[in-house]
Design goal:
The structure is a homodimer. Chain A has about 450 residues and is α/β, with parallel strands linked by helices. Helix content of chain A is about 40%, strand content about 10%. The first copy, chain A, has a 7-stranded mixed β-sheet with strand order 2-8-7-6-5-3-4, with helices on both faces. Chain A has a 3-stranded antiparallel β-sheet with strand order 9-10-12, with no helix packed on it. A two-stranded parallel ribbon of chain A has the order 1-11. In chain A, strand 6, helix 10 (about 270) and strand 7 form a beta-alpha-beta unit.
Chain lengths: ~450, ~450
């Protein structure tokens, strides 16, 4: 793929990479400064850097050079620089510049641990301010306690591993994410799905019925209810508050899966009635992967974040306050720092959620002007992730195109838009999260242009 | 702390951060290029960048400015640039320039997933070459199959969760890392420690005795033996081959914990007789955290990497070939790419292990010239991580110093050396891994200088 911004992009990355080479030279040198030999190498590199920067100032020199590789065999990734990216799961995970700076400075593995002191646990470290960040995270989702975890899935695992015994049932929605299945399977539990209503929604009534049915069938109350506030398939909004009430009527705790909410829209765990709030750093908190958050109430904190009780039979050793389900410390280094650096921006952006939804609906209104296009998700949208159906439009074009379904992603990428599932022309997903109004207009126009090119009716 | 290289360091980071701001501008712009308004902002930033680069060329201008912050509240981390870092667990995790470039380009959360196709699993992705990397990883430790995991601890957890039932015993060394304890505790197992011999070593005989004792006591054979090739306390080398033989005599699988070997010295899992080889990316593979590797044999692969068998009771849904203990995909984004980008260098550096050990021993020989200094680890060293005892030297000085034990880390950091546990003057650990001979000499001299300053005898 080639972007019209290739020159700028290429020079920007070249400069960044050259600076990393310079940085390496500094790292290799003695504390007193560069040696004469290192000085020579330094001069060569800074002089090269100056050339690159001059060329960048001149707009990349317009000479359309090949983009630099990261290393041999690993090409440059520049989707966010060169294109409008509507990939369904990448949108709200893309890093802020602050997170990228944190990754640069704190990339080394154990960078978080420079000032780790007793009691030697990640969430107690005060420089960088990791302890404060944990408090703020809990507050952010209005729960009592929070921990960072290597992905939302590891939060699910910690909860199921604590609550679910072999043979116990766990209630999930018929739209459950596969990681919910796996976390129940790993604990030896059984998945019981709640059916959807005619609008592809999970209702509180349906959850109640399922709890009753499972209890009758197994003679035991299910141990946990998982609910995705917005599911990953349609990003429809499900009645989390109603479902929490129902779960609690049966004394079952509720895990609120906020992989598609925490970090992009306000989430109030207490108001929802959630016992666990799970979020994904790399999906919705502008953070490096793998990252996520597990928050809970004081009621459940002692169980989920229980500390080790194991004692060595020979040494009598006990490992203090390390938490079993967390496997001790969880997110070291740049991954955590990227979460922390993005956090002020993330907190702020959740307040703009209505505007994000508005842009999503604006785009879809334009998209529907292509006669035959359909929205599979609930509409008007309450989210920026949407499943659309173009069976009546682009899929028909695909049937007579020598590139088949790929014609659409080809056409879009020629127009600077990526992130559609290549080859898909029937039902597919896109996400407009974080796109400016200018990009929303550009995106709308691009679809209509392609439709017109292939003689579809555009109203 | 101030480093004499502060000017260079400050300007290098300022340039990197300014480039991230420029990059952000490119990200925000439309695919066609910068708008007139963006162009103005671009010019301002590139002009600022040019100034920084010119100042860098001039050696940082010598004006000793304050170092830039990452963001408000998160200070710059520059220990590797400004100092010689002898922190025990950070040495072999520090990133290569290649890894840092990979983090820059692939930092966005789901950057690995751009070309994810059926069967939708991380280790099957071919661009970037993640699938090949998995094959190379298995080959690197001479095992049959490998997966990346978010830290060695998550590898332990996958193995105990697969093999250990409630009440089963697991044999570990009396020097076991706390994450081994936690992984057994999470699975509901019991820890049984093997005593050390008089040299702080775990012998094959001691393991055999412990297996016998536990079997007598519990009427069941232990389910797993963990052995750290080099333990985290002394980094003494334990007889992994002999212990593997013993474990196999009792039909117990062996988990080889290579957190302090995989990535720095050659590891041949088959020759050792390991059933599982675990490595840590951020500890020993020059990779971002959390990262690690779990490798196993064909015999155990089907169990440890078993795919989901769960079926939705309503939808009949099954989630293909997602692996239960991996929770599906494991290491997305820059974390994995940092491992991959460092890997060619990591493979190469394991061949220089003897030289690394030589430098470690050279330093310690000099260190022992301070009369009263002692080595607690086995000596001569077979590793670069060492526990030393300065009770007879620096600790005596500390008793009469108003900064108490902190005087030593103060004195060392004034000389450009960091990573000692602040305040520790009795037994403490250091790691010389990756230091050039120049740095080794510098380090040796610094300790002797401080000793002389405080009138200790130096031979």
């Amino acid at each position: 793929m080639k972007s019209p911004k290739n020159d700028l992009i290429g020079k920007t990355f070249e400069a960044l990479f050259t600076l990393e080479d310079i940085r390496e030279l500094i790292r290799q040198s003695l504390p007193g400064g560069l040696s004469a030999e290192e000085e020579i190498s330094f001069k060569q590199k800074t002089s090269r850097l100056r050339d690159i920067v001059e060329s960048l100032e001149a707009g990349g020199a317009g000479n359309n050079q090949a983009l630099p590789s990261v290393v041999d065999g690993i090409g440059l990734r520049f989707r966010e620089e060169g294109y409008i990216n509507i990939q369904p799961i990448q949108a709200a995970g893309r890093l802020t510049p602050e997170a990228r700076k944190a990754l640069i400075s704190y990339g080394d593995g154990y960078s978080t641990c420079d000032t780790c002191r007793k009691p030697f646990r990640l969430d107690k470290i005060s420089r960088p301010p990791i302890a404060d960040f944990h408090d703020e995270l809990a507050e952010f989702v209005n729960m009592d306690v929070a921990r960072v975890v290597p992905g939302a899935r590891r939060a699910f695992q910690a909860v199921t591993s604590s609550l679910v015994e072999k043979g116990d049932s766990v209630i999930v929605s018929a739209l459950a994410h596969y990681t919910e299945f796996l976390s129940v399977e790993a604990a030896g539990g059984l998945i019981r799905e709640v059916s959807l209503d005619e609008n592809n929604l999970v209702t509180a009534d349906a959850v109640a019925e399922k709890i009753e049915a499972v209890t009758r069938e197994t003679d035991r109350t299910p141990k946990l209810v998982f609910i995705d506030h917005f599911d990953y398939q349609f990003a429809n909004e499900h009645d989390v508050e109603g479902i929490a009430k129902v779960a609690h009527q049966y004394d079952i705790p509720l895990l609120y899966n906020g992989a598609y909410t925490v970090g992009i829209k306000p989430v109030d765990g207490k108001k929802i009635g959630a016992d666990f709030v799970v979020g994904s750093g790399h999906k919705s908190m502008a953070s490096a992967a793998p990252s996520g958050v597990l928050a809970t109430t004081d009621e459940y904190a002692d169980l989920i974040f229980r500390t080790t009780q194991m004692t060595g039979d020979v040494t009598g050793k006990k490992f203090g306050i390390k938490e079993v389900e967390m496997m001790g410390c969880t997110l070291m280094g740049g991954t955590l720092l990227s979460m922390m650096a993005s956090f002020p921006h993330v907190k702020k952006r959740t307040k703009n959620w209505d505007e994000e939804v508005k842009k999503s609906n604006y785009f879809l209104k334009e998209f529907l002007k292509i006669e035959g296009n359909e929205i599979v998700s609930e509409y008007p949208r309450k989210h920026t992730l949407t499943k659309v159906d173009t069976s009546g439009t682009f899929d028909k074009v695909a049937k007579n195109n020598k590139r088949r379904g790929y014609f659409l992603s080809d056409e879009m990428s020629k127009r600077g838009i990526v992130g559609m599932f290549s080859g898909a022309t029937r039902q597919w997903k896109l996400n407009t999260y974080g796109l400016s109004w200018e990009k929303i207009h550009f995106l709308s126009d691009a679809f209509k242009e392609v439709a017109e090119k292939y003689e579809l009716n555009v109203n």
